[in-house]
Automatic annotation (TrEMBL), chains A, B:
SUPFAM superfamilies registered for this protein in UniProt: ACT-like (SSF55021), Carbamate kinase-like (SSF53633)
GO annotation, biological process: homoserine biosynthetic process; lysine biosynthetic process via diaminopimelate; threonine biosynthetic process
Organism: Thermodesulfobacterium commune
UniProt superkingdom: Bacteria
Keywords, ordered alphabetically: Amino-acid biosynthesis, ATP-binding, Kinase, Lysine biosynthesis, Nucleotide-binding, Transferase
Pathway annotation from the record: Amino-acid biosynthesis; L-methionine biosynthesis via de novo pathway; L-homoserine from L-aspartate: step 1/3; Amino-acid biosynthesis; L-threonine biosynthesis; L-threonine from L-aspartate: step 1/5; Amino-acid biosynthesis; L-lysine biosynthesis via DAP pathway; (S)-tetrahydrodipicolinate from L-aspartate: step 1/4
Enzyme nomenclature, EC number: 2.7.2.4
Gene Ontology terms: cellular component: cytosol
CDD domains: AAK_AKii-LysC-BS, ACT_AK-LysC-DapG-like_2, ACT_AKii-LysC-BS-like_1
PANTHER family given in the database record: ASPARTATE KINASE, ASPARTOKINASE
Amino-acid positions noted as binding substrate in the UniProt annotation, renumbered to this chain: 46, 73
Protein name per the record: Aspartokinase
UniProt family annotation: Belongs to the aspartokinase family.
Length: 420, 420
């Protein structure tokens, strides 16, 4: 098999840990696999470099910032290749520009455009273990770029796609994807398998194990992605295409996010174009609106409630107050002490009654639902922040997520599968 | 003017100092000069990186070692460009591979083969200050190399040559080239000007201010080289082609080296091929022999004395003892407590009496001369190590090097100048 492995910052935090990584890589090599190993910067190194730049100026020029920060992964890739060679295994380290991994020239958050795999294939054919510095690429002009948050995961998935690898393993400090955050739900269960769509919904609704971008990339190129721990031998979670078995699982996981805030504007005239007048100035400031609910009253007035990232809350509130004056709205209210709790499961497509069960469960615990939004395989409720843990635990129990049972409910109806 | 400036590790040791460097660069820029600035790694960083590799294995693979170590200069170049931009001066940082600076593939001690200057010229024409990571280059295959000891000086001189710069300034932690080590001779005088040949002889005989390689390069390409301090505004020393004025200076400087050891082999049969039998096995071990003296006795036996680097002393002594047995030599003696004291001056070519004055001065202070070697512009004496400082001070005084007088001695004879 051709396996792409990616090791995060905590897995390569010091020489001792890099040796452990090398031992693991060698174990796979000895089993006869071809290996491409993507590494992050040693834990803390990226922050150290960014802080050096910030010591000079709060807004360092982005081209030079990328030149600076990309050294973190360069150091780790060299150290891992040195370690592998010192253990008797032929290895070669490559930087983004050497492969090359071509990206757009949007420094600090570049997108991969093309990966040339000839160089890597040549080294693999010679029996070498190929180590690649993650997070970095190069523009056509030869400038070094970085890929933004979760960039090394993206490097690994993109390489796996370009090389048509059999497997892409993301090694991190957790053992996989859980039915809920194990710090909140003590009997949260590690999932053996989850679909790309479910993982995407979980990532977008608060699960931190993977960035959405690398999951999207894996989904597009059908890369079999495994999340596992570099500190244990546990099996990890496979993220792959949805299959029959997954569809039978009603709910795969519960996620939560405390990164949002709610803004409500009451009593605006219910005329066409009102929403645009409210959301255009917010969008212009680069603030992303997540959920929107509009209620129309008999008196032709409407209430609009929406959520924004908590970090943008005060700015968004200012803007809305301005707009409210112009629109002669009755009043504006805001709340940044909210949480979003979501349930995600591919089985929702073919099962009914999931939403009802969620609402009933929250109600039973006296938790008021402020807003609801749904997708095909997700239901999210906005609640008072103080009930977050209670809600997650109650839902985890209600859907019996600590057990691996596949639900075959009475209401099961097989619907034709959608092509996406 | 087009000026290439190079700042060493202590000059860029932290953000505060990098800001000072930026201020100096900007001062020149404001005077209307075009600037290319070469930087070393922050003081201590190269050692930190090498130690990481040595923590893994005492003999790290050299390709990956270069990949690792070259990040030091990459970080500094990015930080300086960020600083210049934060001060309002357009700037761009380039790595070796981006220019590119092509080198041989002899990792850790690569030699520059070719520098493409188009990219730098283009940026200079746009009014930008160009910052270049020193010490590094790239092979034609795209592998990162480093240039060995004094590598950033070499980068600066090579860039100055390729760009046909008017001046190449090497900023360091001393104010220039002195008539003798100021730590030994309190009234040592800073030289305003010195010829390439003199500087080469001084570097080869113990002066540490510049590596021989960058002086050689400057000499070949006639690069006007200035050594000066980045911590003061003092003028520095210009290293340039020999002129009439320099020829009139009898002695420019006194140097010393304690890095050598002496080995003597007594009573070997004086037959052809003897020297080869002694020096071949030493050369095979990569040990460099500096001075050699052979004395022939009436009984057809010879004594041979030579010097080797002190670090190779015990190994060389073992080899010579082996050879001595085969040759039936009378005995072998060694001494690693020696020093080499040298006087250097372009004026020696046209003046006589310099050697005599040196020997008399040493004799007057009771210092025994063990070995003598001379070149056109240098005389070196090997003496007992304990007399090092005394010898340097005595010679400095005897040749009145604390004074800037140009000697017009009675014995002055103008000889035709040699073409080299």
């Amino acid at each position: 098999m051709l396996i792409v492995q990616k090791y995060g910052g905590t897995s390569v935090a010091n020489i001792e840990r890099i040796k452990k990584v090398a031992e693991r890589v060698i174990k796979y090599k000895k089993e006869g696999h071809d290996l491409v190993v993507v590494v992050s910067a040693m834990a803390g190194e990226t922050d150290r470099l960014i802080n050096l730049a910030k010591e000079i100026t709060p807004n360092p020029p982005l081209r030079e910032l990328d030149l600076l920060v990309s050294t973190g992964e360069q150091v780790t890739s060299a150290l891992l290749a040195i370690t592998l060679q010192s253990m008797g295994f032929d290895s070669v380290a490559f930087l983004g520009y050497q492969i090359p991994i071509y990206t757009t020239n949007l420094f600090t958050k570049a997108k991969i455009k093309e990966i040339k795999v000839d160089k890597i294939k040549k080294e693999l054919n010679q029996g070498k273990i190929v180590v690649v510095a993650g997070f970095q690429g190069v523009t056509e002009e030869g400038d070094i770029t970085t890929l933004g948050r979760g960039g090394s995961d993206t490097t690994a998935v993109a390489l796996a796609a370009a090389l048509k690898a059999d497997l892409c393993e993301i090694y991190t400090d957790v053992e996989g994807v859980y039915t809920a955050d194990p710090r909140v739900v003590s009997n949260a269960r590690k999932l053996k398998k989850i679909s790309y769509e479910e993982m995407l919904e979980m990532a977008s609704s608060g699960a931190k194990v993977l960035e959405m971008r690398s999951v999207e990339l894996a989904m597009i190129y059908k890369v079999n992605l495994v999340v596992k721990s570099s500190f244990t031998e546990a099996e990890g979670t496979l993220i792959t295409e949805e299959d029959e078995e997954m569809e039978k699982v009603l709910v795969s996981g519960i996620t939560y996010s405390r990164n949002e805030a709610r803004i409500s504007i009451y009593g605006v005239p219910d005329k066409p174009g009102i929403a645009a007048q409210i959301f255009s100035p917010i969008g212009e400031k680069g603030i992303i609106v997540d959920m929107i609910i509009q209620t129309v009253h008999p008196d032709n007035k409407a209430d609009i409630t929406f959520t924004v990232p908590r970090t943008d809350y005060s700015q968004a509130l200012e803007i809305v107050k301005e707009v409210a004056k112009k629109l002669k709205a009755e009043r504006v209210e805001g709340d940044d002490k909210i949480a979003k709790v979501s349930i995600v499961g591919a089985g929702m497509r073919t099962h009914s009654g999931v939403a009802t069960k969620m609402f009933e469960t929250l109600a039973k615990h006296g938790i008021n639902i402020m807003m609801i939004s749904t997708s095909e395989i997700k239901i999210s409720c906005v609640i008072d922040e103080k009930y977050t843990e209670l809600a997650v635990r109650a839902l985890h129990e209600a859907f019996q997520l600590d057990q691996e049972n596949i639900k075959e409910e009475k209401t099961f109806i097989k619907r034709p599968k959608k092509t996406k």
